[in-house]
Automatic annotation (TrEMBL):
Transmembrane parts of this sequence: 55-74, 80-99
Cell compartments where the protein resides: Mitochondrion inner membrane
Key words of the record: Membrane, Mitochondrion, Mitochondrion inner membrane, Transmembrane, Transmembrane helix
GO biological process, one term: mitochondrial respiratory chain complex IV assembly
Stretch list, region Disordered: 1-22
Membership in a protein family: Belongs to the COX20 family.
Chief location category: mitochondrion
Annotated protein name in UniProt: Cytochrome c oxidase assembly protein COX20, mitochondrial
GO cellular component, one term: mitochondrial inner membrane
Highest taxon of the lineage: Eukaryota
A Pfam family recorded for this sequence: Cox20
Length: 133
């Protein structure tokens, strides 16, 4: 197959637009779905996720209190159930996010302390006094 001159001129540009052959590909939905195992959804694994136990307990407690209060005020069971379920979800989500935020702040503080300690010990090894002395 012979190409005209104008088609040959476009060929390197088209090759540059293609993805490199060795570039890592993003997994598609099917590949991700095949990697999910039923054992990951067992109740015993939920407790292993950081902050999940605390968030669920706060959500259950808050949802129960709000649903009970709503039922005593309105005497409508369906409305109380809706309010309880919605508040369970909102309280669980907010407390989980806040707990994760606190963990991230503490982790950043620990990393900063470790970097400072490494810097001080490096300075002491070289015979220089630390900044606080």
């Amino acid at each position: 197959m012979s190409l005209r001159k104008d088609e040959q001129a476009l060929e390197p540009v088209d090759a540059a637009l293609e993805e490199p052959r060795n570039a890592p590909r993003k997994p598609d939905l099917w590949t991700v779905a095949k990697g999910i195992k039923a054992a990951e959804f067992k109740l015993e694994n939920v407790a292993k996720v950081p902050c999940s136990r605390k968030a669920l307990l706060y959500g259950i407690g808050g949802g129960t209190i709000i649903a009970t209060t709503r039922f005593f005020v309105t005497r409508r069971l369906l409305s109380a159930g809706n309010w309880g379920f919605a508040s369970f979800g909102a309280i669980s989500m907010l407390s989980w996010e806040f707990c994760r935020y606190q963990r991230r702040v503490v982790q950043e503080q620990l990393e900063a302390m470790a970097a400072e300690t490494a810097k001080r010990t490096e300075g002491e090894k070289r015979g220089r006094p630390s900044a606080n002395e």
